[in-house]
Amino acid sequence: MSAHSHTHDDHAHDHDHDHDHGHAHKPGKKKGHDHGHGHHHGHAHGSSNERRLTWALILVGVFMVVEVVGGILAHSLALIADAGHMLTDSASLVLALFALRVGRRPADETYSYGRQRYEVLAAFVNGLVLLALSVWILIESARRLFEPQTVQGPVMLVVAGVGLLANIATFLILRDGEDNLNMRSAVLHVLGDLLASVAAMVAALVIIYTHWMPIDPLLSALVSLLILRGGWRVTRESAHILLEGTPPGIEIEEVSADVIAQVPGVSGVHHLHVWSLTDAKPMMTLHAVIAEETNQDTVLAAIQKRLSERFGVVHATVQIERGGCVAEVDDGCHAHGAAVAKG
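^ that's the sequence the OP posted. Answer follows.
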């Protein structure tokens, strides 16, 4: 598809192919468009997150090996499940780290918006892994309830305690990083491990003092349900961005009405589309109807400013139409004063 169509009977907007560097087209007498940019790559935050992810990966990798060995020796599903979490954590941290590094590359002709969507893709994959792992633990827990196994409580307690310390340290390292969907998915993995370590310690204590073996699979299932909830949330949010859904907190009709009310000279807004490059970078395209005598450049600047300040839009493409709007019959667009939004 082309970047942005300038005819009124073809409104296909390929918003994945606008250039990432600032540019503006000289408006003509009848119509014009402008690309507003507010991209801030946050290299300092990116470097900080990269260091945090690297240290977290080292910690998780070392203690994953400890828990695998301990789980086998103790015959504990809780420990093996926790080690499984740590294995997926290692993969998720590698993926998050890769996405962060790739995302910092500048825009080019192949990726004109840059590669920041890799972070959303990494979060989506990590969310799917969390869902799959939770389901596997639930199935294995059910099997263990029907086929109980003797668990070595003391070994389980020691290994789970060491794993808990590692998970707490990893969680603290990642918690203070820059908030984005990619980092949140990594933190969620580690938080799941932390809960699994606590559950393993509780199960070990119950086994040591009561010899009640079902506690091991029962607590494992409880933790997997908690992780399942978080995994679903991350998967849903990242899928919404990848499918270019409207960002949370932004209502199409509200944007349209706000631009008409707050920007002098705008009498109508239509063909309004909102999506996100990442969870923190809303994007927008719209057509604005203005009167013949209205200064086009002034209106363009005012619309860009309003969209940035009120709705946090980091990139907006605005096309101006004078005196009325020429659009499809079925979109309800009328000249002079109509505000029609299309999703």
